Amino acid sequence: MQSTMLQVADVDLDVFDSGHVDSNQGSGKARPIMFLHGGGGFDQRQPFVAPLAQKRRMVVPTHPGFGKSSLPDWLDSVDDIAHLYLELMDHLKLDGADVIGCSIGGWIAAEMATKAPERFRRLVLVGPVGIKVGPPDKLDIPDIFAMPEAEAQKLIYHEPERMRLDMAKLSDDELAAVFRARETLALLTWEPWMHNPKLKRRLHRVANPALFIRGESDGLISQAYLEAYARMLPNARTLTIKAAGHVPQLEQPAAFAAAVLEFLGE
Residue 246 belongs to what domain range? Predict the structure, then answer.
């Protein structure tokens, strides 16, 4: 995938783009996928990328404050990013795209779709955050910043030891990117914790076909939370991927890619 720095508003965004792919039906250029990554960032070498990019053009913006993308002082919410990415779609002429959002990327996708549902065809939300469904005095999503890293990993992964990141093998630049991403994630999700109180009042506008995906072992997003989220959209259904946690696209990339491509009509 080609990586390009684009300036949108006053934000420098590192945008990955796989380029156009001829559709199987021979109708010219296949409909693009806008992929919005989760709190761990994006790496084009991740195993789910190739199966999707072989079928569709993939456009992957690196969120502000992640990777090489800048983070201006004024940008401090997911809502800000949603507006920014709608402007990015203007720049890239991405109307009619399908969107896949993972975790906080799912929250961004949901915010975008409430603002301009006509600009999207289908939505895939993978372990999305962004709404509050439980009582005010109880967190819907565990506070991963208030627990030891090892405990957080158990909530995120089905097999935490297999997925554990060996910090000792990372370069200084890679380490800096990891901790910058965590700092940005805290900024965007801290207050109120992992949700926008207004979002669930707007989700009824998203009549697009939507697929909510959850890893069976996800310790952050419960099945009840996912189903409550899906019920707020008029045309949504849920899917569970076995032997996966909060990042089924990494733990079960083949099953993930197959489910997504089937839903998108490939």
Answer: 2-263
User: Comparing C-alpha atoms, which of 53, 71, 73, 75 is closest to residue 62?
Assistant: 71
Q: What angle do CA 215, 221, 222 make, to 5 degrees?
A: 90
Of residues 42, 160, 149, the one with CA closest to residue 102: 42
Half-sphere exposure of 147 (CA within 13 A, CB side): 12
CATH number of the domain bearing residue 182: 3.40.50.1820
Cross-sheet strand order for the sheet of 33-36: 2-8, 11-17, 58-61, 33-36, 97-102, 120-126, 210-215, 236-241
Spell out where 114-203 has E strands: 120-126
pTM: predicted TM-score of the whole model, two decimal places = 0.96
The structure tokens 């991405």 sit at 94
What's the number of domains the chain is made of? 1
Spatial distance between the Cα atoms of 239 and 12, rounded to a whole number of angstroms? 35
The predicted-structure confidence for 171-203, as pLDDT tens digits, reads as follows 998 899 999 999 999 999 999 999 999 999 999
Please compute the mean of the pLDDT values over residues 152-167 and round it to a whole number: 93
